[in-house]
Amino acid sequence: MDEVKVVVAHSERATLRVGDMFLKVDADQVRIDVEVESMALVPVPTPQVLWRQPPVLAIAAVPGTALGRLGEPSTASPAAWAAAGAAIRKLHDAPLPPWPGRGGRGRDELAADLDGECERLVTSGVLPADLVTRNRHVAEAALRPWTPVFAHGDLQITHVFVDGDEITGIIDWSEAGQGDALFDLATLTLGHEEHLGDVVAGYGTDVDLDVIRAWWSLRSLLAVRWLVEHGFDPFAPGCEVDVLRSQM
């Protein structure tokens, strides 16, 4: 029997790897529906769905290796990062899916969530007040109108796979839907600012870099407590707290 490896596990979902197959266990079947439907619609490489038996979705591993990891230098070439930007542009140019993004909060709701989270971070002592205040100010630029695109919604660096300079697959589509294009670009480059220029070059259109940086702050502020509470370490070198510090 192949070794069973726990890829990620927390109270919301778990992903196991058995040989060349991934088993995603998720009690939220709407999230799995979105993942399967998105992979069928998008014009970029995605994993093959092998079978589905709720609450489990089985998908095949994609070839290649992840573009990188948060907190570690990426060994991928500038051309691979540019290819990721081009793939994201192809996704964003695709017809909108018929469902909203699962994280698709309006500006007022997002601002209220951010204010509440900033207050909790300070009062609980998780982060110093000056760090929170500065990044809350930076995050303001993300709270603007945007034209919805077909967005991945959780385009972490570990979700994009490459072989040399070619994109071989983009995984984990459970948050996909109508969203902000710059949120996808910001999520991919979080903690890897040195590759932002490569991604934007591959994306091939003007991008407001201040909004990218605003999303870095906003995403990190909203994530820190959740990561701590679910057994992850946002204080590790190069991770979310370092991203917040870099904005100072």
From TrEMBL:
Domain of life from the UniProt record: Bacteria
Sequence ranges assigned to domain Aminoglycoside phosphotransferase in this UniProt record: 41-204
Pfam entry (one): APH
Source lineage: Bacteria, Bacillati, Actinomycetota, Actinomycetes, Kitasatosporales
MF-aspect GO terms: transferase activity
Protein name: Aminoglycoside phosphotransferase
Claim: Transferase is one of the keywords in the record: yes
Keyword entries, A-Z: Transferase
Membrane-spanning parts: none
